[in-house]
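Long-time lurker, first post.

We've been arguing in lab meeting about whether NAP would sit comfortably in this protein at all. Half the group thinks yes, half thinks no, and nobody has a model to point at. So I'm putting the question to the forum: if I give you the sequence and the SMILES, can you give me back a predicted structure of the complex? Inputs are below. Any interpretation is welcome too.
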Amino acid sequence: MDVFLTGATGYIGEAVAELLVARGHTVVGLTRDPRSSRASALEDAGVRVVAGDVGDPGSYRARLAAAEVVIHTVADGRRPVESDEQLFAELLALRAAGRAPHLVYTTGCSVYGAHCHPLLDESTPTDPDHPRARLEAQLATSRLAHTIVRPALVFGGHGRSSLLGRWLDEARDGVAVFYGDARKVWSWVHVDDLARGYAAIVERLAELDGEAFLLADDAPVAALETYEACQRAFGRTGPVTHAPISEEAPVYQVFDRHEIVDSRKAQRLLGWTPRATSVMELVAALPGRTATHPEL
Ligand SMILES: NC(=O)c1ccc[n+]([C@@H]2O[C@H](COP(=O)([O-])OP(=O)(O)OC[C@H]3O[C@@H](n4cnc5c(N)ncnc54)[C@H](OP(=O)(O)O)[C@@H]3O)[C@@H](O)[C@H]2O)c1
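Top reply:
Settle the argument with this. Predicted structure of the protein with NAP, as tokens:
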């Protein structure tokens, strides 16, 4: 498949790009800075890196037209809703011209908002007030060929953009502050398993128009337990201070509730099974390593 990938230098995008190339797909990856070391590493892995900004459709329009699949993994920090709406508009214009690639659209469990559901699956109602849920709803009525990916919290690999990476950095630096509800339980997905989920979608597109997939492993765990394990990984055995969720980074405030994900739909329709180590196994294997954590 000819794939155009936004966010190719990102945590998820890099893993997806490298796996798709290894599986024989052609990947053109978008970045704002094609001279970065991450962009060079992608080029070395066989990805064609191109310059552009999702907030500037003219910078990537021709790439959309040339692609069979567009995988979108950018969350534009400045104008997240407008940039995605511009992408949809570009794809709709292509559709009107008789040619539109299939969009694999990344959101996340934030689409369920702050509501506490005992278990999340694709039939769980999303929060109509959440901007990303509204973008998903726009797609559903747009007649664009699309598939939605909602990853659980991602860990593994280099851990950049992973909450686990931040927690380990905090433990290394002697910070021990846990935010919000100490009883919340979260599902996680290893970045390599997640990349295999995207690959499975790309390779079954014809059957998946309009579908959404929640991708998580089968090892949900109390967030506080994981936080404390991160502390222990750096030999910190002192008490953890608890702080209100209002003091947490805004992006994580919506997750101050259970996020236990049922991925049986992905297992059934994609033949996807998580294979990687669980988050707790990974953290438990860290002691004895250096203060830089090569595998998060
Ligand atoms: N990480 C998680 O635990 C997690 C969990 C669930 C869902 N998600 C979702 O998955 C998606 C990807 O997450 P991630 O963790 O891989 O993010 P990330 O590591 O922050 O990477 C995103 C990439 O997007 C690119 N980017 C940002 N703004 C851009 C713009 N205006 N134009 C073009 N490129 C732009 C950046 O590349 P350049 O700087 O090279 O341009 C960056 O490398 C996001 O939608 C996120 O909300 C993430």
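For your lab meeting: The CA atoms of residues 64 and 266 lie 26 Å apart. The chain has eleven helices and 13 strands. Whichever side wins, do check it experimentally.
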